[in-house]
Write a structure and sequence with these properties.
Order of helices and strands of chain A: EEEHEEHEHHHHEHEHEEHHHEE
Strand content of chain A: 15-25%
Oligomer: heterodimer
Number of domains of chain B: 2
CATH architecture of the largest domain in chain A: 3-Layer(aba) Sandwich
Number of strands of chain B: 12
Strand order of the largest sheet of chain B: 6-7-8-3-9-10-12-11
Shape of chain A: globular
CATH class of the largest domain in chain B: Alpha Beta
Radius of gyration of chain B: 21 Å
Distance between the termini of chain B: 43 Å
CATH class of the largest domain in chain A: Alpha Beta
Number of helices of chain A: 11
Number of strands of chain A: 12
Number of helices of chain B: 12
Order of helices and strands of chain B: HEEEHEEHEHHHHHEHEHEEHHEE
Structural class of chain B: alpha/beta
CATH superfamily of the largest domain in chain B: P-loop containing nucleotide triphosphate hydrolases
Structural class of chain A: alpha/beta
Helix content of chain A: 25-40%
Radius of gyration of chain A: 22 Å
Chain lengths: 356, 347
């Protein structure tokens, strides 16, 4: 086996074993995103007057070594664009990425290449993200080959990662994606990501398309791989229960902005932002005797093309006041390691709910 | 005006005696030059007025095929056998024209993707008015009034303006509401809903589920709700029918089935739902994957994945055996001393 595996008993709670690739030390965040911004200009209309979709607007957060950071929010909140920015699939309009203490600069090729090897992504659609004309082994070996591995080494690597995700290379290496079930294909996508020897995996709705009984298998696999390979995860999902199960910290996004971030249990037990509260209470009850009776929110998120002034949630918020229209709230401390961007939760903001 | 039928109305009375829907031994076989697959193996159930049943299952289990076959909304290669009676009408005996007459009036359907189910070239108002005019021969003005009432009924804000909107001009949630308005436009006795909230965001999903629950109660429709989501089933259904590999494997009142599932597949499905397990725990999953429909095992289809498997499971497909009044499960363990490890829903 090429991939050396520390004993599986190593759990997420144990201090991460020193990693030779670790440049910045254990306390240096794996990845820092600083005021990342991405706007898309729509086609049509006259130049200069084209509509702009403000998909991600000045988003800042860090991903700590060895943790799983969950990202939740509804469609259009910018979670997938954020994922693509983190891996360099989309160039930000402004903002910076710092990977393990080193700024990733577009002009210097070295850091970008290091980022691309160290950060890998698994997408939601397991079928669309595999090349139908390549065998699984060819697909998985492609990345290592491009990065300079010999043919034999890349093949060896592909087989070892297949084994790692629970697929026997003797049975699967020569198969094509259409011969696999959805769960198996998603295992292949995970194997392909692992073939690059990444330290950070971005899982963008990676289990959302799977049936529940298969989803549980893949979640178990992801947890096991994380412990064995000392990985760090960014886990993006719309399933709030799954995010709580997988993550240590969670980031809540709304209309391209971070509205709340902090330890997952703190946020789930005591959400400070009204949107987080509404999102969490829209979870279905899972008990036919205790059904929901009142929808926590009316309406749907407004358009990203012309988002509301000030706080973007104010149009659906029960606590909205004049200050919310005038000033966009900044993230403010809500106790240890917990930030929320809400005037009503920020003393001194001028909001009636916190007036002295 | 659209309103719930008054309790004294004759239509409601007639249907309270006989079941709204009776399905006997529904079998669907897909046969063409290069394919021969049996998608459904003898599905039977009955729905009375006001019943809400969930068909719960994973992809390929046959839940959508069941729903579509009820109104013969299947490709020509599908052969539908068995007896289907909706509101006293023998669906299998209908000619294509007659079938069109009952679709949208006696029985109607809402789909997962309103963006593709609605016609992009007509406004919402035109589509509802057309349906009403075809089935009830109303004047243009009356049909448009009905369309407006319906949009208000499904709580579309500024309904008068939305009447002239095209599907692409509406958000996902409003589009699904418009589709519900269209489906209810002729007050069907039976509503078929195929994963109607799956494509919606969490905060919108709750709104639409609550709306459907209210309308179902007001109209007194029998409703079949296809879903793969245990949470959605908990919110909407009175009864649940769990499907696996083209068969019903467990049926019964949802509270009882979820509190103490009798079939190992139901138990496994409920246990693999992530809901409150502590972080770092190993999730209980069902090993393996659903079987290939072209090569089903000889006996119980779930046997290869089942922890309670025994010799009898491979001999023949178990019958749907009564568990308790109103409940049944297709498992050799039913009635035997060894109950399956029942999994009460995590609190």
């Amino acid at each position: 086996m090429v991939v050396s595996a520390p004993p599986a008993a190593a759990t997420a709670e144990a201090p991460p074993a020193p990693d030779p690739r670790d440049v910045g030390g254990p306390r240096q965040p794996m990845l820092i995103a600083e005021r990342l911004t991405k706007h898309f200009t729509l086609r049509g209309g006259s130049p200069g007057r084209r509509a702009v979709v403000r998909a991600v607007d000045e988003v800042s957060f860090d991903v700590r070594k060895g943790e799983t950071l969950g990202i939740v929010g509804e469609s259009g909140c910018g979670k997938s664009t954020t994922a693509r920015l983190l891996i360099g699939l989309t160039r930000p309009d402004s903002g910076a990425l710092v990977f393990d203490g080193e700024e990733v600069v577009a002009s210097s090729g070295v850091a970008v290449r290091r980022l691309q090897r160290s950060v890998q992504m698994v997408f939601q659609d397991s079928y669309a993200s595999l090349n139908p004309r390549l065998t699984l082994q060819e697909t998985i070996a492609f990345g290592p080959r491009v990065c300079g591995d010999s043919r034999a080494a890349a093949r060896e690597r592909a087989q070892s990662v297949l084994r790692l995700v629970g697929l026997d290379p003797a049975l699967f290496a020569r198969r094509y994606p259409h011969e696999l079930s959805g769960g198996q294909r998603q295992r292949v996508n995970i194997a392909r990501a692992l073939a690059m020897g990444p330290r950070l995996l971005i899982l963008d709705e990676a289990v959302s398309a799977l049936d529940k009984s298969i989803e549980a298998q893949v979640l178990n696999l992801l947890q096991e791989l994380k412990a064995r390979l000392s990985l760090t995860y960014v886990f993006i999902s719309h399933d709030l229960n799954v995010v709580r199960f997988m993550s240590e910290r969670v980031l809540v996004m709304y209309l391209g902005k971070v509205v709340e971030v902090g330890p997952v249990d703190r946020i789930y037990d005591n959400p400070r932002h009204p949107y987080t509260r509404a999102l969490l209470s829209s979870r279905l009850s899972m008990n036919p005797r205790e059904r929901r009776t009142i929808p926590p929110l009316a309406g749907e998120p407004p358009s990203l093309i012309d988002p509301p002034s000030g706080c973007r949630f104010r149009t659906r918020c029960a606590l909205a006041e004049g200050i919310c229209r005038a000033v966009a709230p900044a993230l403010s401390a809500q106790g240890e390691d917990h930030l929320a961007a809400c005037h009503a939760a920020t003393p001194g903001s001028g909001h009636g709910a916190v007036a002295a | 005006m659209i309103s719930a039928p008054a309790p004294g109305e004759t239509r409601a009375d007639r249907s309270s005696a006989a079941p709204v829907l009776d399905v006997r031994d529904l079998t669907v076989r897909l046969k063409s030059r290069d394919i021969d697959l049996t998608l459904l193996h003898g599905v039977s159930f009955t729905l009375r007025q006001g019943d809400v049943m969930c068909l719960l299952g994973e992809s390929g289990s046959g839940k959508s095929v069941t729903l579509r076959s009820l109104i013969r909304l299947m490709p020509p290669a599908a052969r539908i056998a068995g007896a289907i009676t909706i509101g006293g009408v023998d669906i299998q005996a209908l000619r294509p024209r007659q079938l069109m007459g009952i679709r949208g009036s006696l029985v109607s359907m809402i789909f997962q993707e309103p963006a593709t189910a609605l016609d992009p070239t007509f406004t919402i108002g035109q589509q509802i008015a057309e349906t009403v005019r075809v089935h009830e021969r109303l004047s243009r003005a009356a049909a448009r009034r009905r369309a407006l009432d319906l949009l208000e009924l499904v709580q579309i804000p500024s309904a008068a303006r939305r009447l002239d909107a095209y599907a692409h001009e509406l958000s996902g949630g409003l589009r699904q509401r418009a589709m519900i308005a269209l489906a209810l436009s002729c007050r069907p006795k039976l509503l078929l809903a195929d994963e109607p909230t799956t494509a919606l965001d969490a905060t919108v999903q709750v709104q639409v589920l609550l709306l459907l629950r209210r309308l179902q109660r007001e109209f007194g429709m029998a409703t079949i709700f296809v879903t793969h989501d245990v949470g959605v089933a908990c919110e909407i259904a009175d009864r649940v029918a769990v499907m696996y590999a083209g068969r019903l494997v467990e049926t019964g009142p949802i509270e009882e089935v979820f509190a103490a599932p009798a079939h190992p597949y139901t138990a496994g499905l409920l246990r693999s739902v992530v809901n409150g397990q502590s972080r770092g725990a190993v999730l209980e999953s069902i090993p393996g994957a659903p079987p290939d429909l072209a090569a089903l095992p000889r006996g119980c289809s779930f046997a290869p994945r089942c922890a309670h498997v025994r010799a009898a499971c491979g001999e023949r497909v178990p019958d749907l055996l009564p568990v308790s009044p109103g409940r049944a499960a297709r498992c050799v363990l039913v009635g035997s001393a060894e109950r399956t490890a029942s999994a009460p829903m995590p609190a």
